[in-house]
Amino acid sequence: MASIAQPQVMAQPITKPATGLWSWLTTVDHKRIGIMYGVTAFLFLLLGGVEALIIRTQLARPNLDVVSAARYNELFTMHGTTMIFLALMPMSVAFFNYVMPLQIGARDVAFPRLNAYSYWIFLGGGIILNLSWFFHAAPNAGWYGYAPLTSTSWNPGRNVDFWLIGLQVLGVASMLAAFNMIVTVINMRAPGMTMMRMPIFSWTTLIVSILLVMAFPAITAALILLAFDRYAGTGFYEYAAGGDPLLWQHLFWVFGHPEVYILVLPAFGIVSEIIPVFSRKPLFGYSVMVYATCAIAFLGFGVWAHHMFTVGMGPTANAVFAGSTMLIAIPTGVKIFNWLGTMVKGSLRFTTAMLFAVGLVSQFVIGGLSGVMHASPPVDSQQNDTYFIIAHFHYVLFGGTVFGLMAGTYFWFPKITGRLLDERLGKWNFWMAFVGFNATFFPMHFVGLAGMPRRYFTYSEDSGWGPWNLFITIGAFVLATSFLVFIINVVKTLRNGEVASDDPWDAATIEWATSSPPPVYNFASIPEITHRDQLWWDKYGDHGAGSGVERKAPAPKEQVDPSSIHLPNPSYFPLVSAFGFFILALGMLIDNPVLTIGLLHLPILVPIGGLIMVVAIYAWAFEPAG
Amino acid sequence: MAQAVATLETAHGGGESHIGGADHSGHPPTSTGLDSRKIAMWAFLASDCMFFGSLIAMYMIYRGEAERLYQAGQGIGPLPHEILDIPYTSISAFVLLMSSLTMVLALASIQKGNVRGLRIWLGATALLGAVFLGGQFFEFTEFKHEGLGLTTNIFGSSFFTLTGFHGAHVTIGVIWLMSLLIMSLRGGVRKDQALNVEIAGLYWHFVDIVWIVIFTLVYLIPYDEISTITHEAEGALRQIGLG
Amino acid sequence: MTHGALAAADHGEHEHPSEQKYIKIAIILTIITAIEVAIYYIDWMHDSGALVPALFILSIGKFLTVIGYYMHLKFDSPLFRYMFIAALVGSLAVIGALIALLRVHTIDFGPGGFIS
Ligand code: HEM
Ligand SMILES: [Cu+2]
User: Using one digit for the tens of pLDDT, what is the confidence trace for A53-77?
Assistant: First the structure.
């Protein structure tokens, strides 16, 4: 810690964004890291989408042979794993990174280099998972990896190892990011930004991060036990050895249910920002919204066994978990009413962002309702492991999370790039997504109730499910096309889209007070916060957002000379250390010489990677933070 | 690693709050007035509660399972009450407790600016940690000798996993303390950087309290009696009609 | 720490216990540990079923003493107290539920079941 020895202030302040590949590889700027998360996650989303389309092609008609049964297992496993861990979570983290520090008036997150580290580790984890394709060992036991499907006797290849090591790496990345976000929200707010003045999206950032750091350890522990079972030959999940496959299910869902809220709450946060802006009304019931989010997070830890109603936990356990599951629908419903209440009597503007936000409200309700249906154990006995469940969670994950993230993309795109996405293409994008999504997933309720099981690679002619499945597959392709429209929109906009003003939506929160895109230092002078929806207050004072009566512009604050603003130095150590971690993880998966130290047999890449990782961490600790 | 990274991340007190241009706009370095790294450390410990919680739950679920297999005629390998050495482990537990004392003394020293005291107590803490680890190493090899390995039976698996991960935490702690000691010897830890020591201390004490729990649940509570905790919990559940 | 702005936080931290107090606490912890081990060797404790509750109380006492005094939770900012206690209570609830769930399951379905 050189800078501890002599707490010098580093020279050369950075005020102009550096350019070039190196500047991206060494960046510690939360905005750039946010963009990197977003772009990477979107690429993984496309990959997961392609996997889904292959699945749907296989299921389009009965008895098709597009892929083998074994390949089908790999496809749905990787589809789920990719979408959850490589697409939706990191896309939420992209918004946490880009938007939250701006919303709370900070110059960066609390630990900028740790932030870069999280991103690089995440990238490594994503690569590891997908490298499995090239080793003919793609994970094949479902995103939930139930024992004993994952045991060496049933699954002797490397498939499950790629999955468990990949998830372990991604877990580290998520946890590090979450610690950073927690501390940033708690400790880096602008003066006057009390917790109850904080924009809802920043609140959800905090809550989701807390969920992350409390939920991930359960799966970390579960995966460690699985790794011992597979690498060392223990029997934690093997009944014959005195173990219990159900321990896996419990630990997985102790993580898994909070995880679904980790996935959806960021989207809730996003629409809670968008709906007020395009209704020109402050969010209805702000504090209720905050408490509802906290309640969901709290209750979310007490419902996990609703995924296990059919394993035979006994009537008491089933009843308890059914009760808690139904309870959690209450704060969720409260949020829906808050959004509706915000729109009531508002002057609504249906921009694409707003359409996606309202899309979320409507579609999530459907998913929430089907959730409450199988919160009842007898009902769930009928629906468990059928396409009804697939319908449920796609209504919450696509109709909820993806719609929310798309809303956020249309909303903040001008802030991030300085250009407004095309609204005409945007409406095409939305309506195609909306129609395609419903065409794909609504009929799944029907085939599910008709008994079509999930995870099967085909079905018989006389099941009668053929026509609906064809319809579903067509819907899936419409849905996929909507993403093409989105890509065209982005490309067109970046080329010659309409240039955005600092505040193109007449928005409420202070990220719109700085330029589009924001300077490296975010704000020339840190804003003073006196109200919730600070920017509306600055613009309209007591008249309120919808009034159209502008307040006399407040006297411009004394401007700080940007060259005097101190920013953290770029660093390549996070990248190097993450690379070491990547090598370490890879060493567990690919053939490489074994090093024997005493009782320990280590594949040589493991200590090499570990060494790179640790040395880089030390180097980074002793490098001046700037 | 997380905690190490978080602590080492910044050199200055208030997280990297200096990037907030605190000096220019005159706002306090952090919103709470607390140090960012310390908050990160507590968040990490909160999360680690859940990690050890999961492992401990696993241990308690499988506790007694090895006996059950014996009773069912499928037993294999040594059982806990045959192999756990309570007097020996009591000394380990004592060593780790004392290391918590030396740790707070190290912190108290540097808070008063006593660099020499810091070095002595840091060194003592790291040494006690190393003694604990040595004890664990001998315990493990001894068990191996007596026929209990990681894969012998479910008791061996859960025992080595739980105590092994605790040992891994201690190892990281020892490396961390040694790093601080070396930094101090090179003149790097002064009174106004006591926080570096405090954060390492939080981690260290946490590892100690985990051992307090493990010592009781794994070693002291008898295995060969009906009155093990899970049996009691089970009985209680039955009584209120939940079993 | 950076300058005076942290006065609020510093306030609490100045009331750290003295070194004598730390040593006294260590002695208490040692005595509790000794008691724990000693009662393990008393037959009556086993026979009466008092052993397990006693061990629980003693180790909870140790646990609280270490987090309260050595980790300064008793004196430090309440934020830390809330964070840790919330996590602790949450983890305990999950552990308890997991044990209950998997135990009850084994009773119902395990070969031979459990002695009750
Ligand atoms: C109103 C609130 C909700 C309730 C009552 C609810 C209830 C349930 C229940 C009981 C199941 C288990 C069904 C079975 O496997 O038989 C389930 C599955 C699932 N839910 Fe929900 N849910 C709710 C909200 C959500 C949300 C917000 C998400 C995600 C954003 C979500 C994602 C999932 C997923 C992914 C599964 C399937 C997991 C799998 O088996 O692979 N749910 N839900
Ligand atoms: Cu769930």
Answer: 999 999 999 999 999 999 999 999 9
Q: Which residues contact B23 (CB under 8 A, 6 or more apart)?
A: none
| A 197-216 → B contacts, CB under 8 A | 213-216
Our count of domains for chain B comes to 1
A275 Cα to the center of ligand 1, angstroms: 25
Q: How far apart are CA A517 and CA A187, in angstroms?
A: 25
Among A185, A250, A318, the strongest candidate for a mutation testing the C interface, having the largest count of C CBs within 10 A, is: A250
Out of A248, A250, A260, mutate this one to test ligand 1's pocket (max ligand atoms within 8 Å of CB): namely A260
Closest by CA to A408, choosing from A494, A332, A509, is: A509
Q: Which residues line ligand 1 (CB under 6 A)?
A: A 144, 260, 263-264, 306-307, 325, 328-329, 332, 368, 371-372, 374-375, 380, 383-384, 389, 392-393, 396-397, 400-401
- How confident is the model at residue C108, as a pLDDT? 41
Rounded Cα distance, A615 and A607, in Å: 12
Is B138 among the domain residues?
Answer: yes
Q: Which domain holds residue B64?
A: 36-238
Task: Give me the pLDDT at residue B21, please.
Answer: 34
User: Which is the closest atom of ligand 1 to the Cα of A143?
Assistant: 41
Q: Are strands A419-420 and A498-499 parallel, antiparallel or unpaired?
A: antiparallel
Cross-chain residue pair B86–C40, CB shorter than 8 Å: yes
Q: Probe ligand 1: pick from A81, A262, A306, max atoms within 8 Å of CB?
A: A306
- CB of C1 within 8 Å of a chain A CB? The answer is no
Q: Where are the domains of chain C?
A: 10-72, 75-104
Give the amino acid at A499. Answer: V
Mean of per-residue pLDDT scores for chain A: 93
| Domain A29-543 in CATH 3.40.640.10 | no
Residue A17 DSSP SS3: coil
* Contact predicate A269/A205, CB 8 Å: yes
Beta bridge partners of A498: A420
Q: Give the bridge partners for A603, in sequence order.
A: A594
Residues of C in contact with A244 (CB under 8 A): 102, 105-106
Which of ligand 1's atoms lies nearest the C-alpha of A397?
Answer: 30
Is B4 part of any domain? no
At C73 the pLDDT is 94
CA dihedral A518→A519→A524→A530, nearest 10 degrees, is 20
Q: The CATH number of the domain where B104 resides is what?
A: 1.20.120.80
Closest CA to B75 of B1, B20, B154: B154
pLDDT tens digits, A250-305:
999 999 999 999 999 999 999 999 999 999 999 999 999 999 999 999 999 999 99
Question: Residue with the nearest Cα to atom 10 of ligand 1?
Answer: A375
* Domain-embedded: residue B149: yes
Confidence (pLDDT) at A20: 86
CB A191 within 8 A of CB A528: yes
pLDDT tens by residue, A144-196: 999 999 999 999 999 999 999 999 999 999 999 999 999 999 999 999 999 99
Each as own residue / partner, the long-range contacts of residues C98-102 (CB below 8 Å, 24 or more positions apart, any chain) are: C98/A250, C98/A251, C98/A254, C98/B57, C98/B61, C99/B57, C99/B60, C99/B61, C99/B230, C99/B233, C100/B233, C100/B237, C100/B242, C101/A250, C101/A305, C101/A313, C101/A317, C102/A244, C102/A246, C102/A247, C102/A250, C102/B61
User: How high is the ipTM of this complex?
Assistant: 0.93
Closest Cα partner for C114 from A260, A496, B69, A358?
Answer: B69
- Residue ranges matching CATH 1.20.210.10 in chain A: 29-543
The number of angstroms, rounded, from the C-alpha of A13 to the middle of its chain's C-alpha atoms is 33
pLDDT of residue C14 exceeding 80, the answer is: no
> Which pLDDT score, from 0 to 100, does residue A33 have?
98
> Over chain B, what is the mean pLDDT?
84
